[in-house]
Specification:
48% strand, 4-stranded antiparallel β-sheet, globular, 456 residues
């Protein structure tokens, strides 16, 4: 945990929103979920809430967790398949056009691209149906690649990118059609990059330090030659498509190993991209990334798992592609890998879920979701429910309230939980580094107010 930050920097960071994330453990030390590499979410059982899916790479399983009450209380893992060796990627789409969501999964060690039919729209899945084989497949997406109204599959991995045509709209797949036999990728995405109404493909190619895209030339899945966006993204392992600058076209964002996270502006909406626009530098192996609006301001923010630092971060977008400093909402000695954003408790605010590698040997990994409880804010020019003093302080803060205080929580300026006080009328921050902190106070009536405290 990094606390030694200059006051001038702290004040600068406060110009960006700070979200109160509350962690909820979905699974902890369950042998069924060993190595949660990929996550996916959707309403799989038709009850109106978002369920969660995960790959258990070392456990050779694909599982789902039912959102039992729509509030983010999840079931124990329900095994969909134990017939895949090192499953890595997931996609939830309607493969057979029966108006419910089926599951696509890929597995690296036995080279499977498979799908599982949602038999009744309630999350009861059929057996593995093999769509294709792909040596050391690592990444998958599912879109209509040939414009015929059904969902096809795009996959990438060991020096190959290909797509599989859904021949009848019922999940009967044709032999693979090659897009490239040069790219080695752990990350690809299909999207309309050049604004012509069909699905193109973008990839992150880490051996060649390259982000590149392939144009769907005729809208029927005939792809053109490789178009290089950059070949200086050192060991890039993730790329996402998102409209970063709100101009109506898809931009690209990539991670460059321990160098930087950058975005590339789609300058004309036709797939001519800018040079890298650096978002954050000197990172320590950012691994997976996701783009979504977390703060409800209408633009795409970014989220990344920092494998070596043991952190999950979000980067706030001002709507023009200018990002604030990384805000840490999880920090531990463990290694977060998978990350996904969705509304898990039905409050119309986007939450975050992550797969955590606690130990690379033993079966004690975690999946955690982080509830978006809204901005950490300071009530100004209104009557205060609570007062804290002395402020500034060298350590002990006393809470003055006309009602009984039930909980006091302390956050750093990044919105990261520091601790919950064991006392209800005072809080000791003497052990914290000098700087600005947020003290959130809740009383017995459920009233909440957040105060800014300065530690000298």
């Amino acid at each position: 945990m990094k606390k030694a930050i200059l006051l001038i920097i702290l004040f600068a960071l406060n110009s960006y929103a700070q979200i109160d994330f509350e962690p909820h453990i979905i699974v902890d030390s369950n042998p069924v979920v060993d190595g949660p590499f990929a996550l996916a979410s959707a309403d799989i059982d038709g009850d109106g809430d978002k369920d969660l899916f995960a790959t258990s790479t070392r456990g050779d399983k694909v599982v789902w967790f039912k959102n039992v009450d729509g509030l983010g209380n999840f079931s124990e893992p329900i095994v969909i398949s134990s017939a895949m060796h090192y499953p890595m990627g997931l996609s939830l789409v309607d493969i057979d056009n029966d108006n419910d969501l089926d599951l696509i999964a890929i597995s690296n060690n036995d080279h499977k691209i498979a799908w599982f039919e949602n038999l009744d729209g309630l999350g009861n899945f059929g057996p593995l149906t093999l769509a294709g084989n792909f040596t050391y497949v690592q990444t998958v997406d599912a879109k209509d690649m040939d414009g015929d109204g059904d969902i096809d599959i795009v996959a990438g991995g060991n020096f190959k990118i290909s797509w599989l045509e859904n021949l009848d709209g019922l999940g009967t797949f044709a032999p693979e059609r090659i897009i490239s036999e040069e790219a080695y990728t752990e990350s690809l995405q299909a999207g309309d990059i050049d604004g012509d109404g069909d699905m193109d493909v973008i990839v992150a190619d880490w051996p060649r330090n390259m982000v590149a895209w392939y144009e769907n030339m005729d809208g029927q899945g005939t792809f053109g030659s490789e178009k290089v966006i950059t070949d200086e993204a050192i060991w890039t392992n993730t790329v996402v498509l998102a409209d970063i600058d709100n101009d109506g076209d898809l931009d690209a964002v990539s991670i460059s190993d321990s160098e930087y996270i950058a975005w590339y502006e789609n300058l004309d909406g036709l797939g001519n991209f800018s040079t890298p626009i650096i978002i954050v530098e000197d990172i320590s192996l950012a691994y997976k990334m996701y783009a979504e609006d977390i703060d409800g301001d209408g633009d795409k923010d970014l989220f990344a798992s920092m494998l070596f630092d043991g952190e999950l971060i979000w980067l706030e977008n001002d709507g023009n592609g200018n990002f604030g400093a990384p805000q840490v909402f999880y920090s531990d000695e463990f290694s977060p890998v998978a990350i996904i954003v969705d509304d898990f408790n039905g409050d119309s605010k986007m939450d975050i879920a992550a797969g955590i590698y606690v130990n690379i040997i033993f079966e004690d990994d975690q999946i955690i979701w982080f509830e978006n409880r809204g901005p950490l804010s300071i009530e100004e020019n209104t009557a205060s429910l609570f007062n804290i003093y002395p402020n500034p302080t060298q350590g002990l803060l006393t809470v003055n309230s006309s009602s009984t205080v039930s909980e006091i929580t302390v956050y750093n300026n990044l919105g990261q939980l520091i601790f919950i006080s064991e006392e209800n009328n005072q809080v000791d921050i003497s052990s914290l580094s000098q700087g600005i902190y947020f003290v959130k106070i809740k009383d017995e009536n459920g009233q909440i107010e957040t105060k800014r405290a300065i530690k000298r």
